[in-house]
Amino acid sequence: MEDRVQLRNGARRQFLGLVLAMNIALWFSVGVIAVQGKDVDTPSVVVLVVTLLLLVKFWRSGTAVSADGVEIRKFFGGRSVAWRDISDISVAHHGKWRHVAIRTNGGDLLKLSAPADWWPRRDAFFDEGLQEIMRRWEKHGTEST
Asked: Where are the transmembrane segments (predicted)?
């Protein structure tokens, strides 16, 4: 049996680092304000919550492929699709950016978390990830279970 391969966007680590740094700076600022006995203003709390949500989103998002199918992880939940249930794999282009999408036999169009370009960078591993998905679909998509 083939191993499970986790596909991640090439820019993901940089985004995680940036958002983590923003969170640390914001937590530090809010902590200093709280220690001084001052009220924390609403915009600071909103920005803190938004950056925390971004951190969770970047940490959680991903696509994994195995002999069984594709696992799509999103901010909330995720979905697994068996290779035999996929009717098409395509690359959607939006200006300079692109992402991989799968269409199920039931007609659902699912955008994969990776490979995909993330603003402002293109995914350096996009083609490699797409080839891995296509290779496994061609190998396992027609197998009967």
From this structure: 15-36, 42-59
